[in-house]
Amino acid sequence: MQSIEVALLGCGVVGQGVVKLLSDESSPLWERLGKKLVIKKVLVRDLKQSRDVTLAEGVLTTDPREILEDDAIKIVIEVMGGIEPAGALLLQALNNGKHIVTANKALLAEAGGPIFEMAAEKKRHVGFEASVAGGIPILKGLSEGLIANRIERVSGIINGTANYILSEMTEHGLEFADVLKAAQEAGYAEADPTFDIDGIDAAHKLAILITLCYGCQVPFKEIYTEGIRNISSLDIDFADSLGYSIKLLAIAQETKQGVEARVHPTMLPHGHLLTQVHGAMNAIHVVGDAVGESMFYGAGAGSLPTASAVVSDVAMIAARLEEPSLLDIAQRLHPADVRPISEWEGEYYLRFAVRDCPGALAQIAGLLGDHDISITSVYQPERDEGAEVPIVVMTHEAREQNMQSALQKIEALETVLAKPVLVRVEKG
Ligand code: NAP
Ligand code: HSE
Asked: Which among 23, 341, 391, 392 counts the fewest CB atoms within 10 Å?
């Protein structure tokens, strides 16, 4: 059997999963591929760090030149994370004629252009299945399985950590801060967990999905990004009693005014398929003009699920080393026309922390009315007069721009004691 030598940049949560899969002599992969993938070198920061895998003497290195300058290494697998030095190492690898595979969505979303351009110039493959939704083969699903479709909308739960936190808050009534640590210990969270909590990781993945679905590269800053920090167990309970679950969704949709690109907490009616996605699981709902609705579900993070996606790319590249890439993105990218969130129209859940006193509700309702926002229902639990009380308001469809200016004025009211909480409602 022919052997193809590969190298890893990084041997952490994902890298160790890759080592395990590639070290499994009895894996069906070898028979299916008809070739053997051999790990020649693994770049790490600290040679002494204890790892869950055993590598032969001399495989671990702290010197990237041992990988980049070795012509026998055909595929470089980047699982170190961060934008630099990962970006520079991948560019060097491509420049030296190597194919690359990466799980690094931050790098691709924020600085992917030069990588795809270099790959096109050097006629090398870039595999990045693991960069979106961990083990779910969503990128191959979109770029191969749904190649004949115009993608009308793609929406999903694509951050396992945030979904884990919201699920634990929902199922066990826990508060946000209590759950974050457990997600970090499970190995789902990014090195900087604010990426997960503030929606940045989901926005990185959405940027990659948009490139595949709509052939454009959205400047990362133009993706509206809001995380789950402001969601409390109170909102989860109110949402539940109104018939909704709260999920962090990433949504892209082609509209006449441009591509909508947004990540934010979203209220979905109980029974919606995405409300059945719990823990660190991910799911992506795709609407194509030919296929209709499709749902991709699976493990969105973790060592072996992510390694499964990484190794699928390595295997696909090994199978067609010198053939042209199916994902030659750089050749067909066009500028992105992004529809700003201010133009979004939809229903809203609002929660105000208010001092219970005569006229407090009337002031809020008046300001909403002044901004053309119509209320569908209001709920206020009983409290002693003068105490802080939550007022929950559900609205009819309203325009985001109007909502933001109404909330600014409401927040300035003397009776409103904290920043209002807003959650957008999606029913489709
Ligand atoms: P991790 O556990 O922190 O591992 C990072 C690895 O890279 C470590 O082995 C580290 O070396 C090495 N490394 C980091 N900086 C380095 C440098 N400057 N020079 C040499 N080696 C360096 O990270 P991870 O969770 O595996 O994530 C890796 C990538 O996969 C990230 O881009 C992440 O976003 C992506 N991803 C992760 C998951 C997941 O579930 N964890 C899922 C999908 C995608 P030492 O071991 O010596 O410190
Ligand atoms: N931190 C990411 C998540 C890892 O929680 O989804 C998978 O990309």
From this structure: 23
Q: Which of 168, 196, 208, 247 to mutate to test the pocket of ligand 2 (most atoms within 8 A of CB)?
A: 196
Which residues are CB-contacts of 413 (< 8 A; sequence separation ≥ 6)? 360, 363, 364, 367
Atom 14 of ligand 1, residue of closest alpha carbon: 80
What are 317-345's pLDDT values in tens digits? 999 887 766 556 666 778 889 999 999 99
| CB crowding 284-301: b at 16 or more within 10 Å, else e | bbbbbeeeeebebbbbbb
Q: Judge if the beta carbon of residue 301 lies within 6 A of ligand 2.
A: yes
For residue 134 and ligand 2, the question of a CB distance below 6 A is answered with yes
> What's the gap in Å between 137 CA and the centre of ligand 2?
15
Amino acid 175: pLDDT: 81
β-strand pairing of 244-255 with 151-157: antiparallel
* Cα 31 to middle of ligand 2, angstroms: 31
Catalytic residues: 205
Query: Is the pLDDT reported for residue 89 higher than 90?
Result: yes
pTM: 0.95
Joined together, the tokens standing for residue 108 give 């691709």
Please give the C-alpha separations between residue 88 and each of 68, 91, 125, in angstroms, as whole numbers.
11, 5, 17
Work out the percent of the chain whose per-residue pLDDT is above 90.
Answer: 85
CA distances for 356 relative to 173, 232, 409, angstroms? 26, 20, 18
Quick: pLDDT tens for 215-240: 888 999 999 999 999 999 999 999 99
Residue 404: predicted pLDDT: 98
Q: Strand 292-299 relative to strand 281-288: parallel, antiparallel, unpaired?
A: antiparallel
Between the CA of 72 and the centroid of ligand 1 the distance, in Å, is 24
Domains contained in the chain, CATH given = 2-135+305-331 (3.40.50.720), 138-299 (3.30.360.10), 344-425 (3.30.70.260)
